[in-house]
Specification:
The chain is of the alpha/beta class. The chain folds into two domains: about 170 residues, 3-Layer(aba) Sandwich (Rossmann fold); about 130 residues, Glycogen Phosphorylase B (Rossmann fold, 3-Layer(aba) Sandwich), CATH 3.40.50. Strand 5, helix 4 and strand 6 form a beta-alpha-beta unit. The termini are close together. It has a seven-stranded parallel β-sheet with strand order 3-2-1-4-5-6-7, with helices on both faces. About 35% of the residues lie in helices and about 15% in strands.
Length: about 325
């Protein structure tokens, strides 16, 4: 029996294709760790749910709430965790403490800077040290784990998020999609918003659309955005349609870099580092600080179709099938 764990919306989106592929092949049960507590009502699976008791530090609370929940591991031979969230790290560690096999989905992503992204870079490095099977999206991720001499087996499988997108039609509009939420950007998100709003004011032919992340450190700066269409968070399928129809994106997201590459579109990445390095210079372009956004925006706006016809480096939409075969061959 495999326990498939998730705690956030992006994690659930990435495990959904895995769950579909597992049915009829490998017995599984699903654990929701509660990191995004409003998510479970939209999950189309029978789930075991943990509650997170908030203390004065959210990251401490996630780890403390997950640890010691031994009942969720009853009858389990292996645990699959996705990505680099704190709940993924906590579940992997709890499984390791019980000598249960750990499978890491989306393994090997690295910036080698523990502050960017924070705390995700630590989480994924720590999971790699205890994982028995590493499912890597790209060759670079695989090579990272070889260089680190991790003890588990590693495989290149692509990213399962792209399995959701094979039937999405791509077109172009005058919409520029904006997302901004990462913890390391919180201290100057007002400056990012200021630069984005200034650019929007000077480009009235474009429609800037920002689904506002609910984190209070983001929402408190909403009033800066006078020339940007600020909307509530939208369901995943609708958001993917927005990306597939936009001109390009401005973001600090990790996964959005992969989704835009699958659509052969470009994005400006408002971060100092990215773990999705295979798309740099073609699909994604790093913007280190808000004042650099103006010049980079002009370049991308003028060349927004330059990534058309380039193969996506992050997968082909068939990752889940490969993963199930690997799990069967390794007697999971």
């Amino acid at each position: 029996m495999i326990l498939v764990s998730f705690g956030t919306r992006p994690e659930y989106i990435k495990i959904k294709p895995i769950l579909r592929a597992l049915r009829g092949h490998i017995n599984y049960k699903v654990l929701f760790t509660g990191q995004h507590p409003d998510l479970v009502s939209n999950v189309q699976e029978d789930v075991i749910t943990l509650d997170i008791d908030d203390g004065d530090n959210r990251l401490d609370s996630i780890v403390a709430s997950v640890m010691g929940q031994g009942h969720v591991f009853e009858g389990v031979d292996s645990v699959m965790v996705q990505g680099d969230t704190t709940s993924a790290f906590a579940i992997a560690l709890a499984a390791f403490h019980r000598n249960i096999k750990v499978i890491h989905l989306e393994a090997g992503l690295r910036t080698y800077d523990l502050k960017h992204p924070y705390p995700e870079e630590f989480n994924r490095q720590a999971i790699s040290r205890i994982a028995d099977i590493n499912l890597c999206p790209t060759e670079i991720n695989y090579t990272n784990l070889l260089d680190e001499k991790v003890s588990g087996k590693s495989f290149i499988v692509g990213n399962t998020v792209l399995d959701n997108l094979v039937d999405v039609n791509v077109s172009y509009s005058n919409n520029v999609i904006v997302t901004m939420h990462r913890r390391e950007n919180h201290y100057w998100i007002d400056q990012w918003f200021g630069a984005i709003d200034d650019i929007a004011a000077n480009n009235p032919d474009l429609n800037f659309v920002l689904p506002l992340h609910p984190n209070p450190n983001v929402t408190k700066h909403r009033n800066i955005l006078k020339n940007v269409e600020v909307i509530a968070p939208v369901p995943y399928e609708k958001f993917m349609k927005m990306l597939a129809e936009c001109k390009f994106a401005i973001t600090d997201s990790g996964g959005l870099q992969e989704e835009m590459a699958f659509f052969n579109k470009m994005c400006i990445v408002c971060r100092k580092e990215t773990e999705r390095k295979m798309g740099l210079g073609v699909f994604s372009h790093l913007c280190y600080k808000p004042e650099n956004l103006y010049g980079l925006f002009w370049i991308i706006n003028e060349n927004y179709r330059s990534a058309e016809g380039v193969g996506c480096p992050y997968g082909d939409g068939e990752s889940s099938k490969r993963i199930v075969q690997i799990l069967k061959e390794n007697h999971v």
